[in-house]
Amino acid sequence: MAEIISGRDIAQKIIETDLIPRVEKLKSREIFPKLVVILVGDHPASASYVRQKEKFAAKAGILAETWRFPDTITEDEILAEIEKINNDDTIHGVIVQLPLPKGISVEKILAKIDPQKDVDGFTAENIGKLFLGEPCLQCCTPKGIIRMIEESGETLEGKNVTVIGRSNIVGKPVSALALNKNATVTTCHSRTKNLAEHLKNADIVIVAVGRPEMIKGADLPKGCVVIDVGIHRKEDKSREKGWRLCGDVDFESAKDVVAKISPVPGGVGPMTVVSLIENTIEAAEK
Known about the structure:
Blueprint: E1 3-4, H1 7-28, E2 34-40, H2 44-60, E3 63-69, H3 75-86, E4 93-96, H4 106-112, H5 124-132, H6 140-151, E5 160-164, H7 171-180, E6 184-188, H8 195-199, E7 204-207, E8 225-228, E9 232-235, E10 243-246, H9 251-254, E11 260-261, H10 268-285
Parallel strand pairs: 1-11, 2-3, 2-4, 5-6, 5-7, 7-8, 8-11
Antiparallel strand pairs: 9-10
């Protein structure tokens, strides 16, 4: 049975040993780290993510405000709100919760955010610096994944890391961060031929493909470390609610093959949120 890498436990440890002391130091200098989340419309999943962000912010001792807007808001109105935030020195970080209503350009909205307040790490400036290996506010999920691997006792240097997925939010930036840690990185995706061949020498496998339980235990090399980024609601009539949460990896068949694996839920999710809070603190420190 694989060792479980609990993102929930690691996130709690980071808050207690790292983030709270940093926040207290800032407060002693009359700096009160503040995060603003822009939430448009009524999406249950988005509202759930926002609640989790508020909860983690409270644990770390930072201020978190959610600015809620109806889905009738225009692109220009959102841009005006971001302009206000950019000009407010008491706000250190802002994120725009996706998805946004049709007709609003996500690219235009993200481009408006001051890169020094871009705690999601999605602006072109921060992404560019991440790929160059320069200090920046890093994308939260990739940052959380790397921290999770290291906190589990693994080192990335010299390891073969296979990333399955090439999105701008996870796959590409986590590949870059692993390269920056001196790993040898293979990036696979939906058009990769003979995926098994690319997996057979992997020491660490990061799966962010967006397909429920696509990767089976038989696909994975014995003794590797697996980080499962996916989260899906899958029909399961044996459960009272008629569904269960699962990842991109079939946990049941993988757990007896691999050395370590992150669970779903309770794995990458908490690490993403704690990275967001850390980015807000880092922005306040700067």
